[in-house]
């Protein structure tokens, strides 16, 4: 969840992002591709306070990847019908091993762009790893601004009935009620199918082992805001520490929410929806939408859903520190996390990219076998989720459309 304060922070962050104008000019025109391009890795960016031509989440890759020795992401610039009008190209290294697409922010944009990408005749994505990498709001119980989280679950927390808090019953602590129920934090009885997406835990763990090699960025401004969380004691101890890589989960909502009450409510609901397994950590706008498309396209054998990685970096806290109101936290004070969150997308992400490429022949080309249930709340890809209504197909995968 990119809170509105990120927009203001982004303006300040521009002074931290050294970018000459020629670094964002495409290196080549539309290539003539006689064969489909089969990238090993597709980096999925969202945009994030789009004050630059490409959006900071993408620009950090364009600026830094050449120095990694893995190529220039602006070497090939491939137009794809159906991508965002603001981001109409998929950008790839010259040999096509690494590509990047920007969806634009929000669930509708993420789903539309991802669907257009996968259905494009210009790519073969059956063996491609999708690194969904963007900034997010962060739960001070588990991480901090600049921190990196790799998720097993993406939970659509705001897919509920909603009351204005001024009109909710007196015994309610929050104005959200799960579909088909009458009380907050009940398990829903009406499902859309996208409420919970569970990705490959074995792949997540490999990605984590790569990412912890990163030298994460930090700065004094971020440290200053973190220090406001110290009086909260042990429960928010991770907030006051420097950035690190952790394993915890992503909450999806198009609403820019902030404050202890909503954050705690969605923290609880994440636990409810995942049968107590999920750990609410990062708040974002796109993950369930992107994963929902990959799941549907897996059914058609166009992608492999078990090759999706969800990585978020904390740009702002989801709730204020002691002595600060939710309003001040969101719209007045500068949390100063945007610059380090953007930089750490690359710092952690490049380690994952390098790890996959280096071990492609031995491990990653064949795929990483999941050790957990992988899929949605319905069991669409086969198997039995230990959350939700269980498999609606008796454990069998849904057959592709003819």
TrEMBL record:
One of its GO terms (biological process) is nucleoside metabolic process. Nucleoside permease that transports adenosine and guanosine. One of its GO terms (molecular function) is catalytic activity. Transmembrane segments: none annotated. Residues 1-20 form the signal peptide. One of its GO terms (cellular component) is endoplasmic reticulum. Keywords: Signal, Transport. It comes from the Eukaryota. The keyword Signal applies. Pfam families: NUP. This is Purine nucleoside permease. It comes from Cladorrhinum samala. Belongs to the NUP family.
């Amino acid at each position: 969840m990119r809170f509105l304060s990120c927009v203001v922070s982004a303006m300040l962050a521009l002074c931290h992002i050294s970018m000459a104008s020629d670094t964002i000019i495409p290196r080549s025109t539309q290539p003539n591709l006689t064969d489909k391009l089969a990238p090993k890795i597709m980096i999925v960016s969202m945009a994030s306070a789009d004050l630059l031509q490409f959006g900071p989440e993408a620009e950090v890759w364009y600026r830094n990847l050449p120095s990694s020795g893995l190529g220039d992401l602006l070497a090939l610039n491939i137009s794809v019908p159906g991508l965002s009008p603001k981001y109409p190209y998929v950008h790839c290294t010259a040999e096509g091993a690494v590509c990047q697409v920007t969806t634009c922010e929000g669930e509708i944009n993420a789903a539309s762009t991802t669907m257009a990408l996968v259905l494009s005749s210009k790519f073969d994505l059956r063996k491609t790893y999708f690194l969904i990498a963007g900034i997010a709001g962060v739960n001070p119980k588990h991480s901090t601004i600049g921190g990196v989280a790799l998720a097993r679950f993406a939970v659509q927390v705001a897919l509920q009935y909603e009351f204005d808090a001024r009109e909710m019953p007196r015994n309610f602590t929050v104005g959200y009620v799960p579909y088909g129920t009458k009380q907050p934090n009940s398990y829903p009885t009406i499902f859309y199918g996208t409420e919970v997406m569970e990705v490959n835990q074995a792949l997540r763990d490999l990605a984590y082992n790569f990412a912890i090699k990163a030298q994460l960025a930090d700065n004094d401004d971020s440290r200053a805001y973190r220090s406001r969380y110290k009086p909260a004691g042990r429960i928010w101890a991770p907030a006051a520490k420097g950035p690190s890589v952790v394993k915890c989960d992503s909450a999806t909502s198009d609403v820019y929410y902030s404050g202890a009450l909503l954050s705690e409510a969605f923290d609880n609901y994440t636990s409810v929806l995942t049968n107590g397994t999920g750990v609410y950590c990062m708040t974002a706008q796109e993950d369930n939408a992107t994963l929902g498309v990959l799941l549907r396209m897996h059914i058609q054998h166009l992608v492999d859903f078990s090759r999706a990685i969800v990585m978020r970096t904390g740009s702002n806290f989801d709730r204020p520190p002691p002595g600060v109101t939710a309003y001040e936290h969101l719209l007045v004070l500068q949390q100063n996390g945007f610059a380090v969150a953007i930089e750490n997308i690359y710092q952690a992400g490049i380690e994952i990219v390098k790890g996959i490429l280096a071990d492609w022949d031995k491990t990653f080309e064949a795929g990483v076998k999941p050790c957990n249930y992988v899929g949605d709340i319905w069991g669409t890809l086969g198997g039995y989720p230990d959350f939700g209504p269980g498999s609606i197909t008796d454990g069998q995968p849904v057959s592709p459309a003819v």
